[in-house]
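Pasting as-is:
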Amino acid sequence: MRSFLRSEAAGGIVLMIAAALAMIVANSPLAGTYFEALGAHVGPLSILHWIDDALMTLFFLLVGLEIKRELVDGHLSSWADRALPTIAAISGMAVPAMIYLAIAGGTSGLARGWAIPSATDIAFAIGVMALLGPRVPTSLKLFLTTVAIVDDMGAVAVIALAYTREISGLALLAAALIMGVMFVLNRFGVVRLWPYLILS
């Protein structure tokens, strides 16, 4: 068990098994119990919100730290190196949206869903790469991770702007202030993880 958990593919295998089990249960007679369990509250949030708002925040923070390391002193340290994954990410957003519109654009009520397929699931992208373990070059892993992150950030921004009924100025201000504090901490050379975890 220890050797499995230490292997590079362990995370990807666990992710795929968990996703498969979730889909099976969600489409079985146990679906009601499954969704009730996700809606159960643990403290101030439901289990689903703990996953979406807490664990995914931690996930994005750790992935972002890896990308930042490469931006500062790695495979993405120059603008020339950043250009290809950025172009790939923009294409990864635009092409699925155009395919969706080509198929469903003429159907009333469905055309508004054009932004939904433009998002890339970062967790699954990294999980699939993890399944291949050391056989995947580090540069390729970094490239695909960067593409997935840029694609996902762009898609989330598009979905937020295109489908949000009301934009909360207070929430945007709070996010900007938190980002500002993180920027100041970074400029002052704070490298410990816990301040960023708390702010996240």
